[in-house]
Each structure stands twice: as structure tokens, then as C-alpha cells.
Design goal:
InterPro entries: Glycosyl_transferase_4, PNAcMuramoyl-5peptid_Trfase_CS. By secondary structure, the chain is mainly α. The chain has one domain (2-301). It has helices spanning 2-28, 49-64, 79-100, 104-121, 140-161, 167-188, 198-217, 226-245, 263-271, 273-288, 301-307, 312-333, 338-374, and strands spanning 127-128, 135-136. It has a two-stranded antiparallel sheet with strand order 1-2. It is globular, with a radius of gyration of 21 Å.
Length: 375
């Protein structure tokens, strides 16, 4: 645990300093995000923050490759470097989009290429969790296509929720922390000699980098992560999920409580539920009116929360709570009996649903009361 936390701290320190540098460069060169009708900011803000997050990831992984215990992850294993190479590609694509506003199909090609780099030289999805038995794919082309598709979807999901100050980074910290604790706990209690794990390292580095970036991005934001940061988070989160999914038949998850067969896939989906939900709703909403799924609008979850009466900060905190309930609920399935966890999750979801809708319900009640009184 100490070495993973050391890498997390390293990533946080580097990310904080590098984001400060990115702020200075962006402000001096006036590389500001345009102010559009759907945006929540009203003053010029640079969106080079993804460079700061990537710097934290890069330095932390480089240090990890030479550090006690975690360096075993890199021994005769090119996967960490493949993930890092894919991360470098997607950051370049994201910076180009942030500065030049690439067409959606050009950005999609860049996303697919970055994901392909990870799938070819990094990690691959070889198993899809299923009950009673997981489905295994022995074909390299199929594995590469599945991995590429998953990473592209996850990158776009995180990109879609990056609409309020601190939202995407905070959700990544919360979800990544739950993912980190689960991966670490499973390996810590496994009957194996080498307990180092790439998924645990990736999530530790991701959480640290986002923590270092978050003080710069908290409302009112002094810098945005941009597409480069949001897509980088999605790529790292998806890569960690692929690593965990591939461990289903290793016997590691046979020792956990609850429903071990689907824990490796349950947790990533729990962590990514909000981004994926926002992505799905956006695709349905836009295609229903004949627009491209990639066209921007002001209909995301965070927009809806502010429309019903939440302030900027309150909307972010509410989405943090949703992320915590879902992510740590997924973690609880690995530790406690699933019946208990499921009951608590249902109750927590109902309470959170009521809290989320309260401004709308209270306003509707007031309007109903006014209507009845006027009659």
C-alpha cells in the first residue's frame, strides 16, 4: 500500500506543479476556451489542464518502473508502456481539438488510434464476464476490436461530463479511489507471491494526478482539463478495467465475498455509471432530432441539475455523492454479502433520487398550491 500511495503522491505533486505551468502558458498565449451559449463560464479560461494531468501520470509511471515492489509490474511486461503510449497519443489529439476545434470525425479517428495503441501494445480484453461462465475470446483481432471500442466509449463518456468546474476530475478521484481499493484488497488477500498489480497502479496514478489538478479546476476554475484531460482519464480508467476483467479466471476473485464472478466488470461500470448514462442520454437525445451524436448541446445531466435550481457548486457536490454511492457500492460487493449490499444500495439510491429531484418537486408543489389558491 505504501508504494502505491507514494506513486499517488508523486503524481499529485507533479500534476499540481505542471498544471500551474500550463496555466501560465495558456494565459500568456491566450489559449482560452471559447465562451458559448451552452458553457457555464463567462470569462476566458485556458484549457491546457490535460497536460498537467498527463505530466503527473508520466512521471509517476516512470518513477514506479524503478521503485521497489511496483517495478515488478514492468518486468517483462510492455503493457504499462503501451498504456502510456496510448495516453500520449490521446493527449496530443485532445490538445489539437482544444486549440483547433477538430471536426468530430477527425477526433474520433484520433481516439480510435490511441485506443488501438493500447490494445496492440498495452492491454487487451480477452474475457467478457458472464454468469454462470465468462465468455473467452481467443482471437487477437476480436480482442483488439473489443478493447478499442471499450476505450473509445469510456473516453467519450468522461468527455461528456466535463461541463462543470471540478466535475470530471472529482468523479475520477472518487471512482478511481474505489477502484484502487478494490484491486488492492483483492490482491492483498490472494494466495500469490507477486501481489503487484497494473490496475492498482494505474488507478493510484490517475487519482493522484486528478487530485493535483483539482485545486486549479475548483469553482471558479482557473484552468480547464479540456478534451485532452477528459479523454486521458477515460483511457486510463478503461485500461484499468480491462486489466481487472482479464483476471477473472486467475482465481483472485474466488476468494472475495458476494458475487465474485462479475466483480471485475461490476466495479468499472459502477464507477463509470454517471458518465456512461450521460453519454447514452446524449446520443438518444441528439439522434432523436436528427442531429449527430457528437454535436454539442446543453442537455447534459449537470445542465439539467442547474436548470432545476441547483447552484454550480451544489450540482457538482450532488454528482460527487452519486459517484460515491455507486462506486463504493460496487466496492462493497467485493467485501460484504451481496444481499446486504444490494438492500443498502437500493435504499441509498431512493434517498439520492429524492434529494436530486427535491428542487423540482418543491417548486411543482408551490405552483400547484398557487394554482389552487387562485381558483
Amino acid at each position: 500500500m505504501i508504494m502505491y500511495l507514494s506513486m499517488m503522491l508523486t503524481a499529485a505533486i507533479v500534476s499540481y506543479g505542471a498544471t500551474w505551468g500550463a496555466r501560465l502558458i495558456g494565459d500568456r498565449l491566450e489559449l482560452f476556451a471559447p465562451i458559448r451559449s451552452r458553457d457555464m463560464h463567462s470569462s476566458p479560461v485556458s484549457r491546457l489542464g490535460g497536460l498537467g494531468i498527463f505530466a503527473g501520470v508520466l512521471v509517476a509511471l516512470a518513477v514506479a518502473s524503478q521503485s521497489f515492489f511496483v517495478k515488478d509490474i514492468f518486468r517483462n511486461n510492455g503493457a504499462p508502456w503501451g498504456v502510456l503510449a496510448g495516453a500520449a497519443v490521446i493527449v496530443l489529439v485532445g490538445v489539437a481539438d482544444d486549440l483547433l476545434d477538430l471536426r468530430w470525425w477527425v477526433k474520433l479517428i484520433g481516439q480510435a488510434f490511441a485506443a488501438l495503441v493500447v490494445a496492440v501494445w498495452g492491454v487487451r480484453m480477452t474475457i467478457i464476464p458472464f454468469i454462470p461462465e465468462p465468455i473467452r475470446f481467443d482471437s487477437d483481432p476480436v480482442n483488439i476490436v473489443l478493447t478499442t471500442g471499450l476505450i473509445v466509449v469510456t473516453m467519450n463518456a468522461f468527455n461528456f461530463i466535463d461541463g462543470l468546474d471540478g466535475l470530471a476530475a472529482g468523479v475520477a478521484v472518487i471512482g478511481g479511489s474505489a477502484f484502487f481499493l478494490t484491486a488492492y484488497w483483492v490482491h492483498r488477500n490472494a494466495p500469490i507471491l507477486d501481489r503487484s498489480d497494473l490496475a492498482t497502479l494505474l488507478t493510484a496514478v490517475l487519482v493522484g494526478s486528478c487530485l493535483g489538478f483539482l485545486p486549479h479546476n475548483w469553482f471558479p476554475s482557473k484552468i480547464f482539463m479540456g478534451d485532452s484531460g477528459a479523454m486521458l482519464i477515460g483511457l486510463l480508467m478503461a485500461s484499468a478495467g480491462v486489466v481487472s476483467t482479464g483476471q477473472i479466471t486467475s482465481g483472485l476473485y474466488d476468494r472475495v465475498n458476494g458475487i465474485p464472478t462479475i466483480i471485475p466488470i461490476l466495479l468499472p461500470f459502477a464507477v463509470l455509471f454517471l458518465p456512461l448514462l450521460d453519454l447514452c442520454l446524449a446520443v438518444v437525445r441528439r439522434t432523436a432530432v436528427g442531429r449527430s451524436p457528437w454535436s454539442a448541446d446543453r442537455g447534459h445531466l449537470h445542465h439539467k441539475l442547474m436548470d432545476i435550481g441547483y447552484s454550480h457548486r451544489t450540482a457538482v457536490m450532488l454528482l460527487y455523492l452519486w459517484a460515491a454511492v455507486l462506486s463504493f457500492g460496487g466496492l462493497a460487493f467485493a467485501v460484504y454479502p451481496w444481499q446486504v449490499v444490494l438492500a443498502i444500495m437500493v435504499a441509498a439510491t431512493l434517498v439520492m433520487g429524492l434529494v436530486t429531484a427535491w428542487p423540482y418537486l418543491s417548486r411543482r408543489g408551490e405552483n400547484t398550491g398557487v394554482g389552487q389558491a387562485s381558483e
